[in-house]
Design brief:
Number of domains of chain A: 2
Structural class of chain B: mainly alpha
Strand order of the largest sheet of chain A: 1-2
Oligomer: heterodimer
CATH class of chain B: Mainly Alpha
CATH superfamily of chain B: MetI-like
CATH topology of chain B: MetI-like fold
Order of helices and strands of chain B: HHHHHHHHHHHHHH
Number of helices of chain B: 14
Helix content of chain B: 55-70%
Structural class of chain A: mainly alpha
CATH architecture of the largest domain in chain A: Orthogonal Bundle
Number of domains of chain B: 1
Largest interface: A-B, 128 and 127 residues
Number of strands of chain A: 2
Strand content of chain B: under 5%
Radius of gyration of chain B: 24 Å
Number of strands of chain B: 0
CATH topology of the largest domain in chain A: MetI-like fold
Distance between the termini of chain B: 29 Å
Number of helices of chain A: 14
Strand content of chain A: under 5%
CATH superfamily of the largest domain in chain A: MetI-like
Chain lengths: 302, 309
């Protein structure tokens, strides 16, 4: 209440503000906005427009309008597309079922003061500071065919990064190593915000821990749960670094993000076609971005 | 990941007077022990990959070839010398520095400008503006690749700014793109932080006739230093780790920052695991130092977005 009156007052002051101040304010918003519109929103619109064309990327005059042909081609005669969709989905389900749930469980356990809690937290989020490309490098020490630890331990001869039957799973395990700590960190922050008296009340009522979590804590954490869900979806859609560093997203590691890149910096430059793939990514992500923004703004208004 | 984390909006509630230490949960002793053991095992498993890399980075290739990797011994520093010179790490670290520092500075400066206006004034377009920045933070960068790539190829830069003559293959491209993508997160965090500042300070500043710029630069900025420090730590790691844009917008080997230089090293290194280990440790070193020295800032940066006053 107090802030609202204060705000209203400041708005009243607002009218008296001089021309110089108004110029400063518009520059303060204007410059950053121009940058974001130029490098994010204009390209987004351009991607949509280009997705209905055929263009090899050279002369602007060679852009041809082809309608929805690119989308039809992607769905019908572009072999890596469906595997890529499948892999992105596997990525999503895997991330969600293993590292995400593990991260949440770790957060719940570490939220109480237990012996060595800080050490455990550090161990779990240490991989979070590494780039996924580097994670791919480090896991080569386990996955290498002739020098990797796994093959040495089990006397196997599997090419973990190369064999299309297993490489997706090998990559997912490496991703999980990093993803778990990330989710743990976010959830831990959320748990710190839960009112302690809720827990005490539940304890007084004689609810055990598991019950307390599912009946009391989990519902209160709803915004965070949704955020985690959105993060997982967006992360699995954006997944790129690991597969690109291994084999540029081929041979069992096709992902939509890698297909887009292949069409621009690969051997063939097919801008229209690549844009159509990009738009598919954009459409999927925008659904979840909308969910995310709604949560953020609802919290903001409260 | 890609280097971006969307902020999570939770408001922290004051905890009850009793606090919630160990008494908060009804963890009995036996269960507590089981939990501790499981945690310990998991934590060691999580540390193992890095420790394994560290261990093998100091071992001689021919020694591990004859005795296997499960052996002990064959200590050497040659892997680091080798990795450093063959990977041309001096150059790539310099490139990373030249990209990361300006990008972080620019991101923090521009986002603090927007955050200040969002927090200080209540215009009708505030939410829309925040939405424009935040959504940009979450869009998959690959979806914007083609227009950005083509546009940068078209934009000429004078010789002294980019030896390639265009935005493509220049650090300017990476600095601007990284900034544009990180603005959303920083704006969100900073404006939430600024909203917690007492409004009275602005009222007295108004009475003193302080201009908007002075209110921003001399009044607000000193007060948000903790948030800036946390964000700076986070952004340094994220932009240093950024892989996608540096891979696609740069095609000249000598221009790659460290993280995307891994692309080129792969072929040279993957036949020698000990070299991979040494290279990995070298690349990880800057972020690990940041992590251990500024751990508090790092964690609070990630969680700042999630707690409001």
């Amino acid at each position: 209440m107090a802030t609202r009156t204060a705000r209203r007052q400041s708005r009243r002051v607002e009218k008296k503000r001089g021309a110089r101040d108004r110029l400063v304010i518009s520059l303060m918003i204007g410059v950053p906005t121009i940058l974001v519109v130029w490098l994010v929103w204009l390209p987004a619109v351009a991607s949509v427009a280009l997705s209905f064309t055929k263009w090899n990327g050279f002369k602007f005059s060679s852009i041809q309008w082809v309608g929805t042909k690119n989308y039809v081609d992607i769905a019908t005669i572009y072999p890596p597309f469906w595997p890529a969709i499948q892999h992105n989905l596997i990525w999503l389900v895997f991330l969600f079922v293993l590292p995400t749930i593990l991260g949440v469980v770790l957060a719940v356990v570490l939220d109480r003061e237990m012996w060595g809690s800080r050490f455990y937290q550090t161990a779990f989020y240490l991989p979070v500071v590494l780039s996924l490309a580097l994670v791919g490098f480090i896991w080569q020490l386990f996955y290498s065919t002739d020098q990797g630890l796994i093959n040495e331990l089990f006397k196997g001869n599997v090419d973990w990064y190369g064999d299309p039957d297993v490489n997706l799973w090998a990559v997912l395990v490496a991703t999980a190593w990093r993803h778990t700590g990330y989710i743990m960190l976010i959830y831990l922050a959320g748990l710190k915000g839960v009112d302690g008296s809720l827990r005490e009340a539940a304890a007084v009522d004689g609810a055990n821990e598991v019950k307390t979590f599912f009946n009391v804590i989990f519902p209160v954490m709803r915004p965070i749960n949704m955020i985690v869900l959105v993060i997982v979806v967006i992360e699995s859609l954006r997944a790129f670094d690991l597969v690109w560093i291994i084999n540029k997203g081929r041979n069992g590691l096709e992902l939509i993000s890698a297909l887009v890149s292949q069409n621009v910096i690969g051997e063939a430059t097919r801008y229209g076609f690549g844009s159509a793939l990009a738009v598919i990514m954009m459409v999927i992500s925008s659904v979840f971005i909308t969910i995310y923004l709604r949560i953020v703004f609802r919290e903001d208004r409260r | 990941m890609t280097t971006t984390a969307p902020p999570a909006p939770v408001r922290s509630r004051p905890s009850s007077p009793g606090g919630r230490g160990p008494s908060g949960g009804v963890l009995n002793k036996r269960r507590g022990k089981v939990a501790t053991v499981i945690m310990l095992v998991l934590a060691i498993a999580w540390l193992f990959p890095l420790l394994w890399a560290l261990y093998n980075s100091f071992r001689d290739y021919s020694y591990t070839q004859t005795n296997g990797y499960l052996s002990f011994g064959g200590w050497t520093l040659a892997n680091y010398e080798n990795a450093w010179s063959r990977g041309n790490f001096g150059l790539h670290f310099k490139n990373s520095l030249l990209i990361t520092v300006p990008a972080v500075a620019l991101t923090l400066f521009l986002s603090s400008l927007v955050a200040f206006v969002l927090a200080r004034f209540s215009y009708r377009f505030n939410l829309t503006l925040l939405g424009i920045f935040l959504a940009a933070n979450l869009l998959p960068p690959q979806a914007l690749l083609i227009p950005v790539f083509r546009m940068f190829r078209e934009i000429p830069l004078p010789e002294f700014m980019s030896s390639s003559g265009t935005m493509l293959n220049s650090f300017w491209a990476l600095i601007l793109v990284n900034t544009a993508f990180q603005l959303g997160f920083c704006t969100f965090v900073l404006s939430n932080y600024m909203k917690t500042l007492p409004h009275e300070i602005y009222e007295s500043a108004e009475l003193d006739g302080a201009s908007v710029w002075r209110q921003y630069w001399q009044l607000t900025m000193p007060l948000v230093r903790p948030a800036l420090a946390a964000l700076a730590t986070l952004q340094v790691t994220w932009i240093y780790n950024e892989f996608f844009w540096a891979t696609v917008l740069i095609s000249r080997g000598d221009k790659y920052p460290v993280t995307s230089a891994l692309n080129n090293l792969r072929g040279q290194f993957f036949s020698d695991t000990n070299l991979v280990a040494a290279g990995s440790i070298l690349v990880a070193l800057p972020v690990l130092v940041v992590f251990f020295v500024l751990q508090k800032q790092f964690v609070s940066g990630l969680t700042l977005g999630s707690t409001k006053g």
